[in-house]
Design brief:
Layout (H helix, E strand, L loop, with lengths): L4 E6 L2 E6 L6 E9 L3 E11 L25 H20 L21 E9 L2 E7 L6 E3 L8 H14 L8 E8 L5 E7 L4 H11 L4 E6 L5 E5 L3 E6 L4 E6 L8 H15 L6 E5 L7 H5 L4 E6 L2 H13 L5 E5 L5 H6 L6 E4 L7 H9 L4 E6 L2 H12 L3 E9 L9 E8 L2
Parallel strand pairs: 2-4, 9-10, 14-15, 14-17, 15-16, 17-18
Antiparallel strand pairs: 1-2, 3-4, 5-6, 5-8, 6-7, 8-9, 10-11, 12-13, 18-20, 19-20
Helix pairs in contact: 1-9, 8-9
């Protein structure tokens, strides 16, 4: 399996076929021919694999959100762990026993606390759903089995309110979220010219959610109701983390707690360390780390996230942390000139952190904790470090995204000084 697709061979050439399982016998159609491989789509499953199950969602295989609903959860975990181990051993030369068994999610369904719903106004009414893979065609959904029940209820309400109104044609996306307390929010992306009337319509419905409008051409959000602030708790005793509607948080809140606990254990801080946390967001790792370190610097390009991180440090009375709104690139070089960095924590986007890898060769840090959501860019980045004086001590995959091929992980590296 690659990128969630099954792998077959035809006349010696590799063929990737999405939504298949090992052991399936299928009739398929080639959709794209590359120099080294073919891409195909299933026409008919002639003989299903013994491990195959009936997907829980009627549009599984059509919607672009899930790739593996047809696989039982233990089988999903087996493949994620196997593919993750293969990526790191093949590209980084890591010893297989350094890759630890995957940590499952507590629930394979209804785990998503954040979701972007795509919208389209059709003659039949206001359609909400997700894009078909590699297109901008919206696949309609009534309910999504991987998002929180509160968000499914809110989606039904919003679709009913917006349907057959003058605003429906100008709403392209709904950003929905729910926090630890069950508080919901909706950010409505609106490209029309009458935000005031849309706000009036929404306010009159008195939905049990914070509602905001993001109008085209404006960076400011229009608050319809609520203050637009969500809250989660992490660590023990709890640290309360506020974040703005539309801001970044991990989508699986239960796994986020496990991720933080695991990372703190690997950090092994004794109160004397200086820590640099890149891509720190609203302080998800920075503030728990600051409880155990001498000083923490958090770096995040988003000014909104840094504003929330500073508010969170004050809210929790954690004073040995400073937050800076700037790109992660160059941050290690800059801050290591001011003080010795004992621990670097980074949680980059799927594109990885190639520039920071080069900085780590020029400005070595004794301990590095790399949190990744993409095994391919992780393997690319780690290969730079393991060939440049760092030992890969362990890499722990987490299943943050059941029903998909995506995999989160935490990797510990030590510099050979």
């Amino acid at each position: 399996m690659n990128g969630g697709a099954g792998l077959a061979r035809h006349l010696g050439q590799v063929v990737f076929i999405p939504h298949t399982a090992v052991g399936d016998v299928v009739s398929c159609r080639v959709t794209k021919a590359k120099k080294n491989f073919l891409q195909a789509e299933v026409i008919e499953i002639l003989k299903p694999a013994t491990v195959r199950r009936q997907p829980n969602c009627p549009v599984a295989g059509v919607c672009g959100g899930c790739q593996w609903q047809h696989l039982p959860y233990p089988e999903q975990l087996r493949w994620k762990e196997s593919l993750f181990r293969e990526s790191l051993t093949r590209q980084c030369g890591s010893e297989p026993d350094r890759i630890l068994p995957i940590i499952p999610a507590a629930d394979e369904w209804n785990y998503r606390s954040r979701v972007q719903i795509k919208c389209h106004n059709s003659p039949a009414g206001f359609v909400t759903g997700f894009y078909r893979p590699k297109s901008h065609l919206v696949v309609p959904i009534e309910q999504c089995p991987i998002i929180a029940p509160e968000l499914n209820r809110l989606l039904v309400q919003l679709r009913h309110v917006i349907n057959h109104t003058p605003y429906a044609s100008d709403i392209q996306q709904l950003d929905l979220a729910v926090d630890d307390h069950g508080q919901c929010s909706a950010l409505i992306h609106y490209s029309g010219s009458d935000s005031v009337s849309l706000a009036g319509l929404l306010k009159g419905e008195k939905l049990a959610a914070d509602l905001l409008i993001k109008a085209a051409g404006s960076s400011k959000l229009i608050k319809v109701c609520g203050d637009g602030v969500m809250q989660i708790a992490v660590d023990s005793p709890p640290i309360q983390l506020n974040y703005a509607v539309g801001g970044f948080t991990q989508i699986n809140l239960q796994q986020n707690l496990a991720l933080i606990d695991y990372l703190l254990g690997l950090a092994e801080l004794n109160g004397s360390e200086h820590v640099l946390d890149l891509y720190c967001g609203m302080g998800n790792f920075s503030l728990p780390l600051a409880r155990l370190a001498k000083h923490v610097i958090g770096v995040e390009e988003s000014k909104l996230s840094i504003e929330m991180a500073r508010q969170n440090s004050r809210l929790n009375e954690i004073k040995n942390v400073d937050f800076y709104s700037q790109p992660a690139e160059g941050a290690l070089t800059f801050f290591s000139q001011q003080q010795v960095i004992n621990l670097l924590v980074l949680d980059p986007p799927r594109s990885g952190a190639a520039v920071t890898m080069k900085e780590l060769l020029e400005k070595p840090v004794k301990k590095v904790l790399y949190v990744s959501c993409d095994p391919q860019t992780l393997a690319r980045d780690l290969s730079v470090l393991v060939n440049g004086g760092y030992d890969l001590v362990s890499s722990q995959p987490f299943d943050m995204f059941p029903q998909t091929h995506h995999c989160e992980s935490v990797t510990l590296l030590l510099y050979r000084s």
